[in-house]
Amino acid sequence: MTRFTVAIDGPAAAGKGTISKAVAAHFGFAHLDTGLLYRAVGAKVLTGVDPVRAAKALTAQDLGGDLRTPEVAQAASRVAVLPDVRAALVTFQRDFALREGGAVLDGRDIGTVICPDAQVKLFVTASAAVRAERRFLELLDKGLDVTREEVLADVIARDTRDRERAEAPLKPADDAVVIDTSDMNIEDAVGAAVAQVQKGLGLT
Ligand code: CDP
Ligand code: CDP
C-alpha cells in the first residue's frame, strides 16, 4: 500500500478532527485538517488582507497561530464561499492526499471535490444541539468568554452558509458512509471510523 486516502467531511464540531487524528494514528497515516487552511485565510482577512491574495500566499507559519476562535471560524466560512479562494487551496490538499503512506483529510468537500476517488469516505455528523454543546465546552476549556447561545448561533450560521453555497457545498458524497455521533462517545465514533477504514483496506 503506497497511496490511500480517507476523506472525512461533516458540519461544524461533528467530531471530524478528533476522529481523523485517531484514524491517522491508528493506521500510521498523515492528517490534514483542511478547515485550518480556511481559518488561516479568514484570520488574514480580519487583518485587512484580500482573501484571494491571502489564500495564494498561505504559508505554514499562517497555520500556527490560534485559529480556533468563533470569530476566525465565521471569517473562514465567509471566505470559503469564494471560488478563487477554494481554487487556490486545491493543489496543496490534493498533493497531501496522494502522499506516500496514506492520508486522512477532514473538511467539507474532501469526498465530493478534493478527493472524489478517495478509498474511504466518511460523513461525520450530529445534531446541531449536540455539536454546539461540544464546541461550547471546548471553548470554555480554552478559557474563551462565550455563551451557549453564541456558540449555537455560530454553528448554525456556518452550517447554513456551508450547505447553501454554490461552490463545493457541504453534503455527503454519494458513496460516503454517514456516521451520526449524536449518541456516541469518542471511543465509539473512532471505532466506527476505524472499522470503515479496515474495510477499505481489505482487512475485514
Ligand atoms: O473537527 P470537528 O469540528 O468536526 O470536531 P472536533 O473538534 O473533533 O470535536 C468537537 C468536540 O466534540 C471536541 O471537544 C471533541 O472532544 C468532542 N467530541 C465528543 O464529545 N464526542 C464525539 N463523539 C466526538 C467529538
Ligand atoms: O472545526 P469546525 O468543524 O468548526 O470548522 P473547520 O473545519 O475548521 O472549518 C471552518 C470553516 O472553513 C467551515 O465552516 C467552512 O466554511 C470552511 N471549510 C470549507 O469550506 N471547506 C473545507 N474543506 C474545510 C473548511
TrEMBL record:
Pfam families according to UniProt: Cytidylate_kin
Sequence positions that bind ATP: 10-18
SUPFAM superfamilies attached to this UniProt entry: P-loop containing nucleoside triphosphate hydrolases
Keyword DNA-binding: no
Compartmental location: Cytoplasm
HAMAP family registered for this protein in UniProt: Cytidyl_kinase_type1 (MF_00238)
Designated name of the protein: Cytidylate kinase
Naturally occurring in which organism (per UniProt): Aliiroseovarius zhejiangensis
